Amino acid sequence: KSANPQWREQFDFHYFSDRKDMLDIEVWRKDNKKHEELLGTCQVDITALPMKQTNCLELPLEKHPGSLLMLVAVAPCTGVSISDLCVCPLGDPSERQQIAQRYCIKNSFRDIKDIGFLQVKVLKAVDLLAADFSGKSDPFCVLELGNDSLQTHTVYKNLNPEWNKVFTFPIKDIHDVLEVTVFDEDGDKPPDFLGKVAIPLLSV
């Protein structure tokens, strides 16, 4: 019931330079659970923003009245990575030694918020549900930890996909739960759910 809503919410996205450089934003209106109406869209060219500073942007909504006020800060990703299995970070013995030194008992209180890293190797899935009429699926895997989200590539027409990717997350809360979800890519439609597993960090 507001034409001037204030959300004051913050979202973290992992931006890699080899990905799409535009941040797409949509504003929707909900009448009830069933009816939704698009109130406008806007885009932010990430590459045009200065690094390591907070940019205050007032973005007019395309083809609709109104504008969106937001703060966008672009900073280098630290600790977050996607790599192939053969070149996984933390695999080098000297690098592991540096990590062990960084998180040893005597350095525990140097940076309270720096808890550690989680490295996840996503190898493959077996006997997935067939979501397409062809009896196959186009699966990809999404990993979520806190408000961090990374995903694999899609393996097309396969019920036993092999991804062989390594994901590294910085841990912000030791009570977080790693959620691994497999979806079926469905073109422009929302992906179909194929399965999910949740792993509490405290159980690792």
TrEMBL record:
Cell membrane as UniProt keyword: no
GO biological process terms held by the UniProt record: regulation of neurotransmitter secretion
Gene Ontology cellular-component annotations: synaptic vesicle membrane
SUPFAM superfamilies: C2 domain (Calcium/lipid-binding domain, CaLB)
Sequence ranges assigned to domain C2 in this UniProt record: 1-59, 93-204
One function term, GO molecular function aspect: calcium ion binding
Membrane topology: Multi-pass membrane protein
Record's keyword annotation contains Repeat: yes
Keyword tags: Calcium, Membrane, Metal-binding, Repeat, Transmembrane, Transmembrane helix
Chief location bin: membrane
Transmembrane segments: none
Classification via SMART domains: C2
Domain of life the protein comes from: Eukaryota
Subcellular location: Membrane
Family: Belongs to the MCTP family.
Protein name: MCTP2 protein
Naturally occurring in which organism (per UniProt): Columbina picui (Picui ground-dove)
